[in-house]
Amino acid sequence: MRLTLRDFTPADEPEVLRLFADCDDWFQAATGHPSGPGDVQSLFYALPEGVAFEQKHLLVAQAQGMIGFVDLVLDHPAPGHASIGFFLVPKDLRRWGIGSEMVKALAERFPAVTHVHARLDDFKPGNEFLKAMGFTLNDQGAVLEIAPRSDGR
Hints:
This protein has a 7-stranded mixed sheet. It is α+β, with helices and mostly antiparallel strands. The protein has 5 helices and 7 strands.
């Protein structure tokens, strides 16, 4: 399977809303309520304090159709770091290695990133995924250190 990560476009909204509905288990655990129609639009405005709009990336994982979605902020909380708001894979595609492929694709697309941060919530499968990917979990969240590339990029 060749997975690509591309920027979200307005034409993706119906499919992303279907993905959000399919991932209601995560929404319930993380936010306490199901996803809603305004969730996609609100992502554009959900920025940590001090972050510029240009640092925000909404990415669609694609391989013969949409198979995932990533909410990402670059250079946060520090230069060379990235913060993941969330990382969604449809229920019927979980545990097939898609999340691992998405992490690899993120590293390829953003080679300057040396640390990836994710918050922890009450969604046990997500926290188990972070552990399996090598994230270090602590009280503040989870951090993955990515070794710099040998070619200097």
